[in-house]
Amino acid sequence: MMGQQMPKTIRRRTFLRQSTVAAAGAAIAHRTRSTLAAAAPTVPANDAKVDALLARMTLEEKIQMLHGSLRRGFIGYVPPIPRLGIPELALTDGPAGVRHGPGTAFPAPVALAATWDRSLAQAYGAALGAETKAKGQNVLLGPMVNIVRVPEGGRNFETFGEDPYLTAQIATAEIRGIQGQGVMAEVKHYAANNQEKDRLLVSAEVDERTLREIYLPAFEGAVKEAKVGSVMAAYNKVNGTFSSENTHLLKDILKGEWGFEGFVVSDWGATHSTIEAANNGLDIEMPGGKYFGEALLAAVRQGQVSQATIDEKVRRILNMLERFGFLDHPAKIGPLDYHAQGQTARRVAEAGVVLLKNQGNVLPLDVHNFKSIAVIGAYADRATSGGGGSARMSPFDTVSPLSAMAEKIGNRAALRFLKFVAGTDLSKSDPATTGAGLLADAEQLAKECDLVLLFARDFETEGADRAAISLPDEQGELISAIVRANPRTVVVLNTGCMVLLSPWADAVPAIVQAWYSGQDDGHVVADVLFGNVNPSGKLPITFPRMRADTGVATTEQYPGQNGRGLYSEGVFIGYRHFDKNNIAPQFPFGHGLSYTTFEYSNLKLGRNRIKPGESLTVELQLKNTGRREGAEVVQLYVQDVQASVPRPLKELKGFEKVLLRPGETKVVRLSLDARSMAFYDVSRKQWVVEPGQFKVMAGSSSRDIRLNAEFEVVA
Ligand code: BGC
């Protein structure tokens, strides 16, 4: 049930006063730390021990640690060196569950992002970490923090959406959860890995400011705040150079500016050279040793890669093995409470469901109001537990929407199911036994029932982008026809990202976005539909009315031409684009309804004038004005009104999920650190807060701003 994870009171947070903008990241850390105690191992690496090991290692042994060795049953494997007591390194996917054998299918990461709940993100991470550990692995290949740029993106379901701040907040909390269990997280895919089409070759042509403001903040947070153990270098090139040999990304930014102490692993098959990759910052080649095996040994012997470079890589790995305790206690298989794992998965999934529309309060349903309920959908008899590719899980058990509805409804109403199969020839299937039927059968059934629950889904997977962002298999046509036949239709969407909802969205009274909600899919949806769970999820992405409305709409931008994808939209992706161009979305970023209502009042800023580099407190009152307990995500957006560079009309810079009983009021306090007001100044190579007017907007979505205030930054 929702609520257990919510803090009882929203307490005032202390925050560090920043004297320089460069230190602004620390304020984010501090703020998050006050709600989420960092549980990851903090024991500093025992340098003497690592030094001693390094001193005893032969060059061959060192090289052996710098590449994978294919081993049956393992996704990534670096063998142990028993002579020295160095343990194996076992790496497993991934972001939505621990793939080493069957296990818990957690809701897709996009559903986690839709919870807008840092404590749930930490719980999700802790559960992933516990399962990684129990399966005898020491590195979990996640989270994925690439930003949703391309609507069709095949891996959008693995991401935390279109906003860098939300992504960073969820990612850092999740990593703390994972690493708190004594295993390493591997944040991926560094960097600008935003499409599956041509993913092995395409070059993301992205300017430095956009990189810093949109595509890197979540990696930066993972390194600086969550102290992530490992980073995965992406398949694609960035500005012409493969990510796995990109010195600007790996050496200048990651290991230099951010002070990353862990190791960099190439995505599987993403290494393309020996000397360049070794000298430009890659530490481990995966999954084999084509470039970092014999070839690297030869390069060292010929003086093309120095001994010091090799030592640095090995030291990074040993340091992490030491920090996580694996040098003394190698990973080994252990027990796990799979029931508890399932409960965490279900709790997150429930909190991530987004109620997109609820005209006339059709929802929640009271089963006593209906004599007959139709369940229609091509896939309603199967759980939509997750997407495909390296995030796919094999759960022990799943619950389909159909079986969960049957459980909920019991014999209090007649439940009639039709499995709509686009293009099915009815003469070849017997609806009496298979329940399969065409559009006409579905319409007929809809007419005969008091209520229709219509389930639609899409299929997202690594390796291919979606052909279109409309619902596949004529499901859009099905919805249009059904709602004409019976206006009392509730549509449940199991999609990994945005889909087009026209032309039917206006006609359907209630739409529920349930994402890929993990192994308990059916229960999660049923509990929301029947009101056992009050929905509290908010969209981490914009739903456009039309594909052409989105910010990445030309071939040059996507899929790119001549191997180059131009990020010419700059920082204006997602809602930043819709705001700039004054385009009305179908459902805006941050949108999500509840079965109760909330009133915002009394927005107060700590001060009206601050100096560049200083933080600002923001306070408001939130009241539950309805008759049910419910949680609201208070969202804080900032606008730099007088910027000297083009800046978005609003950018998310704070949020808090607040649980309120009916009639209850709470004071919500947030703080804006210096980074919240800064942009990345390319010429000065640093984050800069410019003097001038700033606007603070507090709201229930990016297009439902309830309160405004202004402050001034004075030099
Ligand atoms: C994916 C990674 C994954 C790796 C190992 C690659 O294809 O891009 O995200 O971790 O495979 O399965």
Label the overall shape: globular
Tally of individual helices: 19
Query: What is the alpha-carbon Rg in Å?
Result: 25 Å
Termini distance? 49 Å
Helix and strand composition category = alpha/beta
Helix content: 25-40%
| DSSP strand count | 27
Q: Which strand order does the major sheet show?
A: 10-16-15-14-11-12-13
Hey, roughly how much beta strand do the residues contain? 15-25%
Mean pLDDT level: 92
Largest sheet: 7 strands, mixed
Indicate the low-confidence ranges by residue numbers: 1-44, 425-434
Say which molecules are bound, naming each kind only once: beta-D-glucopyranose
Describe the structure.
It contains 19 helices and 27 strands. Helix content is 26%, strand content 20%. A seven-stranded mixed beta sheet has the order 10-16-15-14-11-12-13, sandwiched between helices. It has a six-stranded mixed beta sheet with strand order 1-2-3-4-6-9. It has a five-stranded mixed beta sheet with strand order 19-27-26-21-22, with no helix packed on it. The radius of gyration is 25 Å and the shape is globular. The chain starts with 23 loop residues before the first helix and ends with a strand. The longest helix is centred in the N-terminal third of the chain and has 17 residues, at 118-134. Helix 2 crosses helix 12, helix 4 crosses helix 13 (338-352) and helix 16 packs parallel to helix 17. Residues 1-44 and 425-434 have low confidence and may be disordered. With 715 residues, it is α/β, with parallel strands linked by helices. Beta-D-glucopyranose (BGC) binds at residues 75, 93-94, 141, 188, 267-268, 390.
